[in-house]
Specification:
12 strands, 14 helices, alpha+beta
């Protein structure tokens, strides 16, 4: 009876520790979820602020181009940028700022932008009523420049405040991760001590002390390995890194088995084999459809035995032995599947507990890695076309230019503009225009090399950075792109839309510029010379346009 009371006391203490640790971990997770939501809101406000300032600069550039050339096309582009700017301002007005952000700065920024737009309108009116000289005098008053400087400084201060908040929340996330690790390690240590105490008590009363000690050691090792697995997954930034870590720990936790870990594709229709172990990997099906596995259908662990009458999962080989399928789920959403095959039927019971524990620890971590990877893709990709955005292009071009200077290599920039895109939109509608942009982006993605950097630069303009490509090579590749445009087919609402052409402007390092801005300006200028020369042609930077060429 004494032994029973001691064991019950130890069991109660272990249960209490588990409950306390579970409560602490749940509270920690809830706080981290709130911290993550706040961080995401700060990040979205930063992106919105950058888009707002960039659009204002674009509006200023198109107004300047109109004052220089008098071309109404630039004025139309200016109005388009003004509309985008209005949308961004409306979104900024609706954004909820935390107490740490001085909203008076946001109000001041809104007033400065309004003042700058009034100055733009005034200069355009002077240009139309009094001519270029009067407009130039108005520009030389530097009122617009001072406003832009104030806008730039104020937006930088707001961005600095937001980034400071992000830094604080990143530190808080690290604290939460440390606390969670401490909870798990403390729980493992306390449980180990309690189990060790139970072993010492039962050793005096039973002759099975050696078997019990082996079980305790094995259980402790498994808990430690799973804790290490969980901590390692928390530090992963991509699913590829997670897969290698999962395979490493799965080999430790499930020796003498054949198994694999499947991860759900973003399309949600297939699970892809991400990690596998054992020498008999040929028995694993890849990929797996979700409805082919009963564990995924039922949302719980599913066992198949050699001599059972159970329905077998369709993804299993017909010669497979006893099998264990565990769904990896986070917040009722399928993340992946853990599939393990054992040679002996009794081995399933030996590994089921640790397999389910591993599944519990890895599901949330994998969901977090998937979300981080998706957010990173959203931050560097254009949402309509899927090509890189301007921010990613600027960072990549700086890196490639540094490499080109160091190796004395070449680099070319190819600026592409779809001809008569506005007329296409007017004739077929904006939805058809969006379809054209997507198909054209896919066409560029198929045609460029893996090391090239295709980007949607704005509207119907695209830019391709070509590392290691000389001017002559860039001309040849641009000409091939232009000629192959005939193969581009655009289907919309069951109809084939008319074909389109494109104009190309080329600049090369170091012939046309030593830095990113110079190369982009040269390529952009060459593009507009190509449009003035009649469109549907390739124009290298520096080449003159023949007299009598049509206007863009």
């Amino acid at each position: 009876m004494k032994l029973q009371r001691i064991l019950l006391a130890l069991f109660g203490a272990a249960l209490l520790v588990i409950m306390l640790i579970t409560a602490g971990a749940a509270f920690n997770a809830r706080e981290e979820q709130r911290n993550y939501a706040l961080s995401r809101e700060s990040y979205q406000r930063l992106l919105l602020l950058e888009d707002l300032i960039t659009t204002l600069f674009d509006a200023e550039s198109s107004q300047r181009a109109y004052l220089i050339t008098g071309d109404e096309l630039f004025l139309q582009d200016h109005q388009t940028q003004r509309q985008r700017l209005q949308n961004y301002q409306r979104t900024l007005d609706q954004a909820a700022f935390p107490d740490e952000i001085d909203t008076s700065q946001v109000d001041e920024l809104r007033n400065l932008i309004a003042s700058r737009l009034e100055v733009m309108d005034a200069v355009v009116t002077i240009f139309r009523d009094q001519g270029t000289a009067a407009a130039a005098d108005a520009v030389r008053s530097y009122t617009g420049k001072r406003l832009m400087d104030n806008i730039r400084d104020l937006s930088a201060r707001i961005s600095a405040d937001e980034r400071a908040l992000l830094d604080d929340r990143a530190l808080l996330a690290g604290t939460h991760a440390s606390q969670l690790t401490l909870f798990l390690l403390a729980g493992a240590l306390i449980n180990f001590l309690l189990l060790a105490g139970a072993y010492m008590v039962t050793r005096k009363s039973t002759g099975q002390s050696r078997s019990l000690m082996r079980q305790l050691k094995q259980h402790s090792s498994e808990i430690s390995a799973i804790n290490q697995l969980s901590s390692s997954l928390q530090s992963c930034s991509t699913l590829a890194e997670s897969a290698s870590i999962l395979e490493h720990f799965a080999r430790q936790l499930f020796p003498h088995t054949t198994g694999g870990i499947y991860l759900m594709r973003s399309s949600r229709n297939l699970l892809q084999l991400a990690a596998s172990w054992s020498d008999n990997n040929g028995s694993l099906t890849d990929p797996v459809e979700p409805h082919d596995c009963w564990a995924l259908r039922l949302g719980k662990t599913y066992e198949i035995h050699d001599d059972s009458k159970q329905i077998r999962c369709r993804h299993l080989n017909e010669h497979a032995h006893s099998h264990l399928c565990i769904p990896l789920m986070a917040q009722s959403d399928i993340v992946g599947l853990l599939s393990i095959e054992v040679q002996a039927e009794g081995d399933i019971n030996a590994i089921r507990e640790r397999a389910e524990l591993m599944g519990t620890h890895t599901s949330a971590a994998l969901a977090s890695v998937t979300l981080r990877e998706a957010l990173r893709q959203q931050s560097i990709r254009d949402p309509l076309t899927g090509l890189y955005n301007r921010r990613y292009l600027e960072e990549s071009m700086e890196r490639e230019l540094l490499r080109a200077r160091r190796t004395q290599g070449a680099m070319s920039v190819l600026m592409v503009d779809i001809d008569h895109f506005k007329q296409f939109n007017d004739s077929h509608g904006h939805q058809a225009g969006d379809v054209l942009l997507k198909e054209f982006a896919e066409y560029l993605r198929r045609q460029v090399r893996a090391e090239d950097i295709p980007c949607r630069y704005g509207g119907e303009e695209f830019l391709i950075a070509m590392p290691g490509t000389s001017k002559n090579e860039a001309i040849e590749r641009a000409e091939a792109l232009r000629q192959n445009m005939a193969s581009l087919k655009v289907y919309f609402q069951g109809k084939t839309l008319p074909g389109v052409t494109a104009s190309f402007g080329i600049s090369s390092f170091p012939d046309h510029g030593e830095d990113r801005d110079a190369l982009v300006r040269s390529a952009d200028a060459a593009l507009y010379r190509a449009k003035r020369a009649g469109r549907n042609r390739v124009m290298p930077a520096g080449e003159p346009v023949s007299d009598g060429a049509e206007a863009p």
